[in-house]
Each structure stands twice: as C-alpha cells, then as structure tokens.
Amino acid sequence: MTKKLTGLEILNDSDNIVAVLVYITNQSIEIKDIIIDSEINELEDIEDTALSKWGMVDITEEIEYEKLYIFAKVAVGPRTKDYAYWSAYEAEMDFETIKESVQTVIALQAESKKESEHKQQKLFNLDDYL
C-alpha cells in the first residue's frame, strides 16, 4: 500500500536543508519540519540539533551522498507488534517514498535556482553592452 505523502511544500521554503522530520502513520507520511545548515552551531552535529529541536525520534535515516538526514516519528499502532509489523513489512517502502520525493524536490529546486542564476547572469552581461 502506498501512503499519501504530504508537507513537501515545506522543502520549497529553504535552501541548504540538512534534515527533515516526518511523521509516519498507518495511512500517511507527513513532512513536519526541516533543519537548514545555518541552524547548526559549531559545537553540534545534525543529530544533536534535531534532538534539541524535535526531541526523541524513532528512526534516523541518511540519504546517501546527499548529506541529508530523515528523522521519523512513527505512530503505526498502539501495540508493540504493530510497530514490529511496520518495521518488517512497510518501513522500507515508506522510507523509499520519502527519499525519492525529497530528492526530487531538492533537485528541482537546485535546477530552478541554477536557471534563475543563469538568467540573471545573462541580464548582467547584456547590461554591459548597453
């Protein structure tokens, strides 16, 4: 079962995202918050900053090669066996959905920024000839 992923618009609000907080339930995955690189002070790492900002999380995943962490709070049922079932059968698919969606949004954001900078550079170069 593919779950509905919401909250992707949060990713559009900032550059240099280093961490994403998601809530996972039986029906949905919701991106709740982000940490950008400027929020991390010199003496902390991403995990320390996430702990102080969001408290304890159930799972931490890193998107390889992206230097981006996903912190998840999981509420898939009141019993331990509900969580065990989710961990065994649904967790991998949920995290793949999150990773693919986050990477796509960030890649599109970077491409858009690159195009914008290229247009600005062209305008700047055109001003030199006027």
Q: How far is the first residue's CA from the last residue's CA? A: 59 Å
Q: Strand order across the biggest sheet?
A: 1-3-2-5-4
Give the rounded overall mean pLDDT: 86
* Secondary structure tally: strands: 5
Domain module tally: 1
Helix content: 40-55%
**Main sheet makeup:** 5 strands, mixed
**Order of helical and strand elements:** EHEEHEEHH
Radius of gyration from the CA trace?
Answer: 18 Å
Low-confidence stretches: none
Please render the helix and strand layout as text.
Blueprint: E1 4-6, H1 9-12, E2 17-25, E3 28-36, H2 46-54, E4 59-63, E5 68-75, H3 80-89, H4 91-129
Parallel strand pairs: 1-3, 2-5
Antiparallel strand pairs: 2-3, 4-5
Characterize the structure shown.
By secondary structure, the protein is α/β, with parallel strands linked by helices. It contains four helices and five strands, in the order E-H-E-E-H-E-E-H-H. The mean pLDDT is 86. The N and C termini lie far apart (59 Å). The longest helix has 39 residues, at 91-129. It has helices spanning 9-12, 46-54, 80-89, 91-129; strands spanning 4-6, 17-25, 28-36, 59-63, 68-75. Helix content is 48%, strand content 26%. It has one domain. The chain has a five-stranded mixed sheet, sandwiched between helices.
Summarize the structure.
By secondary structure, this protein is an alpha/beta fold.
